[in-house]
Amino acid sequence: MNTIIPDDSFVKSIHGHKKKKGEQLFTPLVLVMLGVSALLIGFNVLQLQSVTGMATASVGGAYSAELSSLDINTLKSTGHTVAAVFPIQEFKTQEDVMRYMFPTGTPSYGAALSVSFDDPITSLSTLARMYEGLKSEVKTNNPDGWQRFISLATKPVGISCEYCCGVGPIGVDSQGNSRCGCQHNPAMLSLALYLSAYTDMPDGQILQEAMKWKTLFFPKNMIELGLSLAGGDTSGLQENLPGMVGGC
Fold first, then answer.
1. 0.70 exceeded by the pTM?
2. CA angle 120, 124, 126 (to 5 degrees)
3. How far apart are alpha carbons 160 and 210 in whole angstroms?
4. Does the N terminus or the C terminus of the chain have fewer Cβ atoms within 10 A?
5. 144 pairs with which residues across the strands?
6. Beta strand residue intervals within 82-178, DSSP E
7. Alpha-carbon 100 to chain mean position
8. What is the rounded distance in angstroms from the CA atom of residue 58 to the CA atom of residue 161?
9. Taking the C-alpha atoms of 165, 171, 172 and 178 in order, what is their torsion angle to the nearest 10 degrees?
10. Concatenated DSSP letters for 29-84?
């Protein structure tokens, strides 16, 4: 019986590229890039751990005021929204603000969206990637939910990435297009769109959830905003509060 000896092309097709003698799998440039990426990820994780250690808010937030009667037409800025959905009269210190505005755990909609307050970096990426597909789905299958979202998000209520890209408190145009290409903006829009279309949350509660996520994404800006609205001293804010979590 004749023995068939496979040629080099067959071996390469099975085993892939054959490493040449002296060829390096990782060049110095690749190793440097991997090292920088690891440092950036580690830095974000350490910052989040330090912030989370100061937060004692519950999954649903420590504030349970009635939000169904909130008139969103009276809100003209992110500051107005924060003052409307959180008890700023109880904000005396940074820890007070953290207790109400910085959430932990997994929200009621967390499983449906595969997000958790305890993992804001992964949740940011998940929500950001979701927006275009979710937008198409809701526009086609739930026009009432779409109109509800547009009515809410096109008002200056803070559903935006205003602290990283300067778009202000409105992150979407009248057609539902994100006004910024960063991750934070479509992530905020995905959250508001899903809650508007697929839950019975009143607008006030949707805004409260949006402000919680905005606090996770921009801890320093949002904690400072909450404290300043209450007339507190912001000069003593802890330096370990990150300005932004996740990539822009």
1. yes
2. 120
3. 9
4. N
5. none
6. none
7. 18
8. 24
9. 40
10. HHHHHHHHHHHHHHHHHHHHHHHHHH----TT-S-----TT--GGG--SHHHHHHH
